[in-house]
Amino acid sequence: MSLTTRDFLAEAVIDKAVIDRFLDSEAVNKWTFASELGYRGNTCPVKDGMDDGLTMYVFALTGERRTINYADRPCRINTYGNSFTQCSQANDCESWQDLAGHFREPVRNFSVGGYGVYQAYRRMLREEQTECAAEYVLFNIWGDDHYRSVYKWRWFQTLGFRRSLKELFAPGSMNQFHGNPWAHLELNTETGNSKNGKTNTQPRSLSTDSVTLSTCMNLSKITLPFKRCSPRTM
Question: Which domain holds residue 76?
Answer without folding.
Answer: 28-206
